[in-house]
């Protein structure tokens, strides 16, 4: 087999923006309900320990006791946990827990952290130790699954928060969900909130590949290409055996037709359906069928660069803030237009 020529870097400069109305509203409700909680659990994706940090949560989490949970650790590279735990301790003085909410991994650690934060509430006669916790994070990282897992372990009860494989399942900040009896621990589920403007296009691709951005908004063939780039960077050519491909390739135009052939994705005229092949590959990644891949650079020097404040370029920070403001204003305008349209539709129906 000839050694494969791979790209040095992935070229992409498109900006993906996704901040629908329910997220802006969710963020508002999260801020409003903050007074009622003692602890904020910020859930992130273990496959993108840096790219799943949403600076929108900083002002929220800073005011409370914060626990950072990196979920879907079963899908991340096994070296991620140790590297990230160490770097966060060193550069952020923050404790982080890695979980697999589907298999209740490390859930007891979270329960004991929350139990220690319990405070006396209620009247003097019937004082009860209680912790109320808000669970926030980017879309689809597993916030609702984590709540269900805590409840399974804490009070041995079934699912209370709806979950699903696409982002945007939880639409609003609803009531509290009990996950422990003594002390009483109540959790509040919230809708996933996306970073309003991701300045780095490659971060946006990583976020999309993990499933936090609605698929129709991002170019699936580009995301599949990024996946191929990552596999080849890791010199992992297991895709050859998986999809019956003779030669490794770093060219998505060569790769996708072969995957389409393997899964039998054909268009009406008999052409290969490349979009279907790209969707298939993305799904395989999300299910862990291609192996455990962490997409952010977790080498010690890279983590140091990402986590130390000084390394953040003040100009790009200013640009980010400006872009956030513009995006927020746009979303507000869209929300108002949507409401007007709804009202007009309702009036029209009334008059019919
Ligand atoms: N492999 C794996 N999948 C997980 C894990 N946690 C959650 N999932 C899956 O990820 C998907 C999203 O889970 P949810 O709990 O709905 O995510 P969420 O953060 O509440 O999503 P939104 O409400 O849309 O913001 C579901 O298909 C879950 O089964 C995990 O630890 N490992
Ligand atoms: Mg949810």
TrEMBL record:
Gene Ontology cellular component annotations, sorted alphabetically: mitochondrion
Domain CP-type G positions: 27-196
Keywords: GTP-binding, Hydrolase, Nucleotide-binding
Region ranges (Disordered): 309-330
Pfam family, one: MMR_HSR1
Biological-process GO terms, alphabetical: mitochondrial translation
Highest taxon listed in the record's lineage: Eukaryota
Protein name (record): p-loop containing nucleoside triphosphate hydrolase protein
Lineage per the UniProt record: Eukaryota, Fungi, Fungi incertae sedis, Mucoromycota, Mortierellomycotina
